[in-house]
Amino acid sequence: MSTEGSTNGRAPDSPSQPRLAPATRGELGPANALIVDLIRRAAGTSRAPNLFTTLGRHRRLFRAWLRFAGALMPRGVLPRAETELVILRVAHNAACEYEWRHHQRLGRVAGLSAAEIERVREGPDGSGWSTRQSLLLSSADAMHERRELPDDLWATLRAEFSEVELIELVMLVGHYEMLATTIGTLRIAPDEPSGRGTDTGSLAGRRVLITGAARGIGAATARRLHERGARVALAGIEPDLLAAVAKECGGAPAIACDVRDREAVEAAVQEAVDHLGGLDVVIANAGVAAQLPLMGGDPQVFERTIEVNLLGAYYTLRAAAPHIAHPGGYALAISSLAAAVHPPLLAAYSASKAGVEALANALRIELLHTGARVGVAYFAELDTDMTSRGFGTEAAARIRRGPSRVAPLSAGVNAIERGVGSRARRVVAPGWAEPVLHIRMFAQRVVERVTSQGLDAALEVALRENAPLTTALEPRK
Fold first, then answer.
1. 197, 245, 238: which is closest to 219 by C-alpha?
2. How far apart are CA 55 and CA 38, in angstroms?
3. Confidence of residue 416 (pLDDT cuts 50, 70, 90)
4. Rounded Cα distance, 158 and 426, in Å
5. Rounded mean pLDDT of 409-427?
6. Picking from 257-261, 275-279, 347-351, which range would have the lowest pLDDT averaged per residue?
7. How far, in Å, CA of 356 to CA of 311, rounded?
8. Which among 35, 206, 230, 382 is placed 20 to 30 Å from 441, CA to CA?
9. Average pLDDT over residues 279-293
10. Measured distance CA(107)–CA(439) in Å, rounded
């Protein structure tokens, strides 16, 4: 009997109608419902992502798939920006709107610019790609068209990528081709983005004070906000570097300020207010780090870390609060993922950043009646001087920390730009760090297990190495 056109009594599926409805929390089960909620927060969607609530109907397979998918992204060996570049090209080739929209957001978090993301559609022949980027795009195209890589392209890839990276690249393309097929066949509808992290708001004319603005994320943030039309004032302790950044920001005021000195901070805030005619945003960014064994380590390193990171943030927020205490006002305290999970040798840094988180949370409540908002920034390792100096030691190299996850500096700057524009409660970069905040107790147990291997030798090296702070500090007067 012919079955052509038969639907067994049902109306045929509309091309825009999902073939399987997203599962409810009850249909997902408690474990999958918790996993999906964590993914929702990380993805920045207003509802649980449709892909995960649909696949979550197969409870056991869903969790097994997540473990495999997570090993490719975000825990892969390829840099996150390169991973997102590949996935976006796969989404374009497969005409998978769901995959494109989802990774358009993740690509920005990973450090790709809006122009780079749009240029992915042009493919490897588009202008502006590096050799590695062009090879990644070519590989995605070849595997889409031929289901393999031609010998000449493979030979070129071997000269540029390691064997582990090549295996991951091939599986990454294959995996997201499979996902695109699954999404298209089940007709999973794209997710609607939430307000958090998608609407940057207008930064034009916003009056912003940034501490620790001489280099690193402070300097990069100053440049970005200036480009977006904000009026910035910069504070820091490295006058030559600070002046150079100020020049790039249209001759912004460069204010010498050691945040360990409360009177100096109060004077710097007042100078910024006088120059800008008021204050809308303060970013308490100044910070230092150094490896420090608690047992036998130099107590001055601990004390100076607390002075800069915690007392400096307190002095900054205290002095700026009366000026940003108005509707539209915003304070952003730069904390760290280290406020949530605490690895060995970073007790001083972790303690100081946990204190910064607490300060900001309390200030948010105290300023609620004024209309001002307060956010906390949680960054994992970004490509800054602090990261390279803080983790570029012999002791740090001896501690097992899993695969390197240093994200591009632009990932943090993008997050700050979005956070300031929307006056966000929480600013997180890179994207994988978001779920960690919600499972911090479990994550701490994982950190303890992973870093315990080889720790004894690392502690001995750290005591001998006596690594300096990432920013040199003059003695207090």
1. 245
2. 16
3. very high
4. 41
5. 90
6. 347-351
7. 9
8. 382
9. 90
10. 24
CA atoms of 434 and 31, how far apart (whole Å): 18
Q: Measured between alpha carbons, how far is 63 from 55 in angstroms, rounded to an integer?
A: 10
Residue 363 parent element (H or E):
helix 347-366
- pTM comes to 0.60
Task: Give me 257's structure tokens.
Answer: 């300020």
Give residues with Cβ within 8 angstroms of 390, minimum separation 6: 289, 290, 291, 349, 396, 467, 470
**DSSP-derived secondary structure for 255-302:** EE--TT-HHHHHHHHHHHHHHHTS-SEEEE-------B-TTTS-HHHH
Q: Are strands 231-236 and 207-211 parallel, antiparallel or unpaired?
A: parallel
What residues form DSSP beta bridges with 58?
none
What's the pLDDT score for residue 195? 44
- Geometric angle at alpha carbon 174, from 169 and 180, rounded to 5°: 125
d(CA 1, CA 141) in angstroms, rounded, equals 42
Taking residues 368-373, report their average pLDDT.
90
**Amino acid letter for position 220:** A
Query: Do residues 61 and 67 lie in contact, with contact meaning Cβ atoms separated by under 8 Å?
Result: no
- Parallel/antiparallel/unpaired status of strands 426-429 and 373-379: parallel
Strands 281-284 and 330-334: parallel
> What integer is the mean pLDDT of 109-113?
76
* Region of residue 384 (left: phi > 0; alpha: psi -120 to 50; beta: else): beta
